[in-house]
Write a structure and sequence with these properties.
Distance between the termini: 40 Å
Helix content: under 10%
Shape: globular
Strand content: over 45%
Structural class: mainly beta
Largest sheet: 7 strands, mixed
Length: 118
């Protein structure tokens, strides 16, 4: 089992920045990758960015060049960070932390709202 705690969402003006964090605890030794997905109203959930335990990062085309994903690990937890800059109204969505184990099993956070509006 993996437990996830997300933080960092909120309201930000267009052009602003924010950082999302997600701390995973529990069976962290089985984690293959961590990342962030988002879902806007009426839309499917989509990948924003992910990073493997070998630090290989993947980004959606819509956020490339204005987002950075990074991870930190210690004996008790793995944490993934998503720094998003030059935010646009179309970035408004609920953002979900995702953990994928080597078995293929996924764990999801509860979601954090990001609203980009003036």
């Amino acid at each position: 089992q993996v437990q996830l705690v997300e933080s960092g969402g909120g309201l930000v003006q267009p052009g602003g920045s924010l950082r999302l964090s997600c701390a995973a605890s529990g069976s962290i030794f089985r984690i293959r990758a961590m990342g962030w997905y988002r879902q806007a109203p009426g839309q499917q959930r989509e990948l924003v960015a992910s990073i493997t335990n070998g630090d290989t990062a993947t980004y959606a085309d819509s956020v490339k060049g204005r987002s950075t994903i990074a991870s930190a690990r210690d004996a008790a937890k793995n944490t993934v960070y998503l720094q998003m800059d030059n935010l646009k109204p179309e970035d408004t969505a609920v953002y979900y932390c995702n953990v994928r184990q080597f078995t293929g099993r996924d764990y999801w956070g509860q979601g954090t709202q990001v609203t980009v509006s003036s």
